[in-house]
Design goal:
With 130 residues, this protein is mostly helical. It has five helices and no strands. The protein starts with a helix and ends with a helix.
């Protein structure tokens, strides 16, 4: 499995993660309505999505640079990008074009996911690449 992951085309995981993220966050109705009463499950999904985006950025970087560890500056850059991306998505959702809700708590959940990526990326990359 590791060999398969390492031999993926450059940046493919990051591109796929971003396409999936943009589809589920910027399409007006990406999924059919479900009457499932799960309190704040949406926030958990936001955390997982942004954590996944952060980790795919880290994965592509470590493969490209052939390093087993992420420098702190790169981790901070990915953190800033992921948090800004979450903010952009929430602002875009509030526009007339997308017509979804702009939610501060969704942005906070996105930031929590990015921060979780910041703290777990080194260990996860060591497992996947190492």
């Amino acid at each position: 499995m590791r060999r398969f992951l390492i031999e993926l085309p450059p940046c493919l995981p990051s591109i796929v993660a971003l396409v999936v993220l943009f589809y589920f966050t910027l399409v007006p109705k990406p999924l059919p309505d479900m009457d499932v009463p799960l309190l704040n499950f949406d926030k958990v999904v936001h955390v997982i999505m942004m954590l996944s985006v952060y980790l795919t950025f880290a994965f592509d970087y470590t493969r490209r640079e052939r390093q087993h560890r992420l420098p702190l500056t790169i981790r901070v850059v990915f953190l800033v990008i992921a948090v800004l991306l979450g903010g952009f998505i929430e602002l875009a959702q509030g526009t007339e074009i997308i017509h979804r809700g702009c939610d501060l708590y969704d942005f906070i959940a996105d930031a929590v996911g990015a921060i979780a990526g910041f703290f777990t990326a080194r260990r996860v990359m060591g497992y996947l690449i190492g």
